[in-house]
């Protein structure tokens, strides 16, 4: 099992484009990595800045608040993104120890620009935490080059593994902060002093039992990381972009409006459509599920009632599926129109 875990570590280092030693997979879903990062980096009373432009920032703000951090937020409605100048201003004002940003905002369908953000954070002695659950493997993210201090993802999106494991990596700076705390993290299960030993990252000769890892999930994660390494990250990114562009063109041909107007800011793995006028979005989803057996979703958190969402990622990301989705939508648009005017 230790050898399998070592392979997973190497696979994550490749997928994240990092040489961080403190790289591992959490036993749990994306939320586990989210909580692990916040619980280990932040001490009660410390200031945290959270960028909220969809549900994931909301979640992290709540997690940080629950463990007693002083939470400050940068806010945009779903679909919005933050300029580096806005981020810098907030960092200068609140002097947080940690700044959270979502790379692939799956509730809004937005991929957030990352260039320069890490440098700005370091200028203000702040660590950068990034969520790439919905984007890893679908849109470029380069942990070391982009100076990201903590990056996490989930196993079940573009990586195609079953849910239940969550890759995460910590930079040297992040390790320095989390291993020089005055207080113990609120969670025993997610305490990185134990997890770093469990993953053989602390340099000690012996790995001591900490908890029972999801071994079948680890086997599957190792294979999924091997598949992405064989395919190559660049190929995975360009494949997702190609299928997404095919889908976007098809949606526009149906007369639909994409929720994220700027093509460069669209998340290839999750496409959001503005709810077309004259339709009840719940009826559209129910119709497509009943007659085409395809699950579309509405918005999530603050984007509920604003968008319809289509996920095409990893194994599911291919032209045949995109075409099937377009045909289902075309039919639903014909059948579900409310105002005949
Ligand atoms: N972040 C993002 C961007 C996500 O899309 C998701 C899952 N939809 C999560 C975090 C949470 O991951 P999980 O459901 O695996 O806990």
Automatic annotation (TrEMBL):
GO terms for biological process: glycine biosynthetic process, by transamination of glyoxylate. Substrate binds at residue 309. Gene3D superfamilies: Aspartate Aminotransferase, domain 1, Type I PLP-dependent aspartate aminotransferase-like (Major domain). GO terms for cellular component: peroxisome. Belongs to the class-V pyridoxal-phosphate-dependent aminotransferase family. Pfam families: Aminotran_5. The keyword Cell wall biogenesis/degradation does not apply. It catalyses: L-serine + pyruvate = 3-hydroxypyruvate + L-alanine; glyoxylate + L-alanine = glycine + pyruvate. The gene is LOC107589852. Homodimer. The modification N6-(pyridoxal phosphate)lysine is found at residue 157. GO terms for molecular function: alanine-glyoxylate transaminase activity; L-serine-pyruvate transaminase activity. This is Alanine--glyoxylate aminotransferase. Its cofactor is pyridoxal 5'-phosphate. InterPro entries: Aminotrans_V_dom (IPR000192), Aminotrans_V_PyrdxlP_BS (IPR020578), PyrdxlP-dep_Trfase (IPR015424), PyrdxlP-dep_Trfase_major (IPR015421), PyrdxlP-dep_Trfase_small (IPR015422), SP_NH2Trfase/AEP_transaminase (IPR024169). Keywords: Aminotransferase, Pyridoxal phosphate, Transferase. Coiled coil: none annotated. It comes from the Eukaryota. Residues 4-317 form the Aminotransferase class V domain. Its EC number is 2.6.1.44, 2.6.1.51.
């Amino acid at each position: 099992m230790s050898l399998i875990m070592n392979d997973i570590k190497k696979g994550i280092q490749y997928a994240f484009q990092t040489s961080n030693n403190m790289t591992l997979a959490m036993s749990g879903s994306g939320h586990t990595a989210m909580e692990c990062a916040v619980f280990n980096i932040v001490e009660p009373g410390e200031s945290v800045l959270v960028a909220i432009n969809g549900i994931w920032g909301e979640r992290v703000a709540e997690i940080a608040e629950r463990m007693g951090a002083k939470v400050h937020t940068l806010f945009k409605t779903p679909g919005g993104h933050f300029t580096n100048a806005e981020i810098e201003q907030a960092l200068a004002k609140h002097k947080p120890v940690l700044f959270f940003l979502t790379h692939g905002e799956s509730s809004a369908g937005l991929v957030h620009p990352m260039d320069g953000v890490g440098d700005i954070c370091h200028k203000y002695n702040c660590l950068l935490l990034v969520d790439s659950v919905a984007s890893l493997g679908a849109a470029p993210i380069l942990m070391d080059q982009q100076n990201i201090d903590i990056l996490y993802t989930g196993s079940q999106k573009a990586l195609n593994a079953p849910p239940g494991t969550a890759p995460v990596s910590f930079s040297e700076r992040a390790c320095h902060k989390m291993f020089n705390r005055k207080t113990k993290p609120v969670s025993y299960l997610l305490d990185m002093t134990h997890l770093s030993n469990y993953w053989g990252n602390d340099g000690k000769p012996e790995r001591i039992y900490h908890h029972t890892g999801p071994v079948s999930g680890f086997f599957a994660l190792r294979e999924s990381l091997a598949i992405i390494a064989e395919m190559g990250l660049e190929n995975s990114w360009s494949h997702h972009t190609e299928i997404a562009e095919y889908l976007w063109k098809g949606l526009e041909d149906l007369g639909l409006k994409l929720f994220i107007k700027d093509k460069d800011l669209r998340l290839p793995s999750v496409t959001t459509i503005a709810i077309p006028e004259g339709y009840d979005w719940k009826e559209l989803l129910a119709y497509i599920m009943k007659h085409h057996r395809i699950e579309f979703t509405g918005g999530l958190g603050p984007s509920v009632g604003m968008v319809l969402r289509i996920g095409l990622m990893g194994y599911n990301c291919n032209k045949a599926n995109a075409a099937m989705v377009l045909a289902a939508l075309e039919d639903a648009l014909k059948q579900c129109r409310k105002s005949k005017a």
